[in-house]
Amino acid sequence: METTTFPLQFTERALRRIQQILQKQGQEGAYLRVGVRSGGCSGFEYVMMPTQQVRPDDLTAEFGGVRVIIDPKSAKVLAGTTIDYTGQLIGGGFQFQNPNAKRQCGCGTSFSV
To answer: Which of 7, 31, 60, 90 has the fewest CB atoms below 10 angstroms from its CB?
Structure first.
């Protein structure tokens, strides 16, 4: 486990929703992998998915009972990011407040640095 400061933070709303989703999927013991991949209309898109697999170079942390992992490349792009959740009908869902994003698409799921 890496001992440096973890690059992400989560709001209480986001953690509650993540716990609900993991429970509904029968994945309560899984890790939540957070990262970025090439794609989307702005260059990068955010990725969040449950997994049982932790790679040797992954950074790990626990937030309110949610075990989170992130790969080193994504950690650099997401450093300082806070993940929130809103249940609004329009524009709702998980929102990434990424201070490194120079430009973001209208739906908030892709960005450029």
So the answer is: 90
